[in-house]
Amino acid sequence: MTITAARRALLGAGLATLAAPRHAWTQGSLAGRTITLVVPSPAGGGTDFSARLVADSFGRSLGATMVVENRPGGNDVVGLTSVIRAPQDGTTLLCGYCATMTGRAAINGLGDIQPMRDFQAVGQITDTPQLFVTHPTVPAATLQDFIALAKQKPGEFNYASAGNGSMHHMGTEYLKHRAGIDLVHVPYRGTGETIRDLIAGRIQFYMNSPPPLTPLVRDGKLRALCVSSNERHPGLPDIPSAAEQGMPDLNLNVWFAVFAPRGVPAPMVAMLSEKLREVLADQGLRDRAFQAGALVAPSSAEALAERVARETENWRRIAQQANITAG
């Protein structure tokens, strides 16, 4: 399916929220209720950080109580399934991870789940370059140093991921393909477990959104090689960009966003999207994200739906080029 066709499909499915009269559904529809924001991964990772960043203020803006519930398992399938099966009344939402909603979808790694069919976009929370790190014992100060070392020692360095189709997996395989290096893939169930092995030296290379890694870099427990963008991260000004390291246009930003299950009325989704953007305009919230290395980047529901369609198609093409499969 071409990108244009995918976009047209979205307009007939759940992910692209169509314009609808907002007077038909107001924030009072959820007032006094408990809203569950499902994180389909363990606590401690970027999805969990993004959900907890907005949950309290998002709930208050709706006159409701919003609770974050971690439902990990099956490469996020357990959590996604729970949202799909939830009542379609706006009381159960998903904090979605870009690789799950686009990367895993592109390689058919979510079983029967199709994000563009089964979910409606509400809005983006953050959009941040990934941080590339190594264990300090790896004798490489830059990404180019690491690439040169990996070429000298093919298959001797491990890299971690959250499973096939995760951004860590897809991104590192794309990096391997671009750089012509051989790294060994070691999948993990969650960020906490990954970081323990990374600090212990059992994993030598890792890429992830900055929040779980930045404190470890500052404490000298990990070494930062670069961020996966053409410009330096404004919150990490001392760390070079991938473009400065000879790898322009990697396009490996990590984003997290809120989604509703298909079937939630479009006017309610529009209202949720508007409230989320209002919450993300708060400077205190933006500062908390920035201090952790994340960049708040609100979007409309329509823009998020377009991004999901576009990136799913891009990852499908990259997966074919780099021979990435769900197996």
Question: How would you characterize the overall build of this protein?
Answer:
InterPro entries: BUG, Bug_dom1. It is a single chain. With 327 residues, the protein is of the alpha/beta class. The chain has two domains: 196 residues, Bordetella uptake gene, domain 1 (D-Maltodextrin-Binding Protein, domain 2); 115 residues, 3-Layer(aba) Sandwich (D-Maltodextrin-Binding Protein, domain 2), CATH 3.40.190.10. Helices cover 40% and strands 17% of the residues. Helix 2 links the parallel strand 1 and strand 2. It starts with a helix and ends in a 5-residue tail after the last helix.
Write the layout of secondary structure elements.
Blueprint: H1 3-12, E1 34-39, H2 46-61, E2 65-70, H3 77-84, E3 92-97, H4 98-106, H5 115-118, E4 119-128, E5 131-134, H6 143-152, E6 158-161, H7 167-179, E7 184-187, H8 191-200, E8 205-208, H9 214-218, E9 223-227, E10 254-261, H10 266-280, H11 283-291, H12 301-322
Parallel strand pairs: 1-2, 1-3, 6-7
Antiparallel strand pairs: 3-10, 4-10, 5-8, 5-9
Helix pairs in contact: 1-12, 2-10, 4-12, 7-12
